[in-house]
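Section 3.1: Structural characterization of target chains.
Under the original work plan, the team committed to producing a structural model for every single-chain target entering the pipeline before any wet-lab resources were allocated. The record below documents one such target. The sequence was received from the expression subgroup and is listed exactly as submitted; it comprises 459 residues.
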Amino acid sequence: MSEEMKNAVTTEEPKQCTAKEKIGHIIGVLGHDSAYNLWGMWATPFMTDILQLPAVVLGILALVGRIFDGVNDIAMGFIADRTRSKHGRFRAWVLRAGPLFCLCMALSFFVPSENMTIKIIYASIMYVVVDLVFTAVDIPFWSLPSAMTKNTAERSNIIAGTTTASNAVSGLVSIVMPIVLGLFGGEQNRWAYFSVALIVGAFSSVMYLISFFMVKEHVIPDPKEKFSFKLAMQNIFTNKPLLLIQISNMFCLLALVMKGTFNFYYCTYNLGSMELMSVFGLISLVCTIAGSLLFMPVSKYAGKKNAMFILAGVYVAACLVLYFSGWTNLILVFVCYAFTSTCAGGAMVCINAMMADTIEYGEWKTGQRNEAMITSTRCFVTKLVMAVSGVAVAFVIGFSNYVPGAQQSAATLNAFHIMSSLVCAGVMIASAAPMFFYDLTEKRHAQIMAELAARKAQN
């Protein structure tokens, strides 16, 4: 154990959550990420292979739509922090926006007409609407742990448990989706996508409702305290640790999303079978959970910052092995994917835990606590990453002479391989770079918590 970890003595608030409430948040993410991962992973294949939208339309849609909605994240953070209702600040939005997001997600997989103009207009509208409604539930949902308890250890456990479940859901969607698509008519059947989306949407709506009734908010702001938008902005833009974490988060997510998005093309064309996506999904399910669990002991002895370096290093090494070995050795491809999935699972828990620590840092700097505004930066980064990923997919498809459903050229196959290996390795290196400048260590956070407690006692 490092000296810094030994010296980090935190002044803890009392524990406030029951086991039922912690489980409730995990149940919520089962619905939250089932619907979003279905849309995030399969919207692009649906638009390229079913709607057959031109690559340039897909690229413009991904970039403009995501960035527009990313700006909306800040607005939603502002709205959520100011929300006052009998259900709390954040639970109210789980009830209001969760089922609506599920409905819009399912409708986005509907083919309205055979006319290309109508398809482009409908897809563009639904693309933006799904993002907007998702934002309305995503920011409050991930703000809940900081409203459920002030105890940092308890909060970290909630985040770790929910993030582990989130990683598991991502793996399950990868496993189940190709199989279910086959049962409903195959990946080239337009009604197969819509039918599966309706089923997942119904399941996710139920999970949102169960979570709403099980989770409670124990951190209640003083009703007399006025919310300052100026302080909220300072809470973001003067929060150096938050900005560094979000840069790291952006590149880590980009590596994760690109690899997940290209799995469809990589399995279908490089490896020769879309059904292999289920194998990749199973590997991802097991290994991301293992990585999430691995984060706890590694961070305990090395600290979160050093844990990020270790996980990124192993991820990059696995990607380089995959790049130089090619895709003909299926076993080696699976092994490399297992290592990258393990590291990605641990890295996302690490980033989320570090991000939660920046809430107290912002409160220490400004005197105002802004869970939702800080969480909104995470959602903004997610949308930005999805935009960049969408542009990357459109670029590769457009410039590698990709032909839907046909035998691909050697150049196209090489492009898919480079994106799934070498490019992901470079992006993960960029993810670890901000950690060299990150100074909100465990010891520093403990000092901030002690000072915040002293301020409250004085007041």
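Residues 1-11 have pLDDT under 50 and may be disordered.
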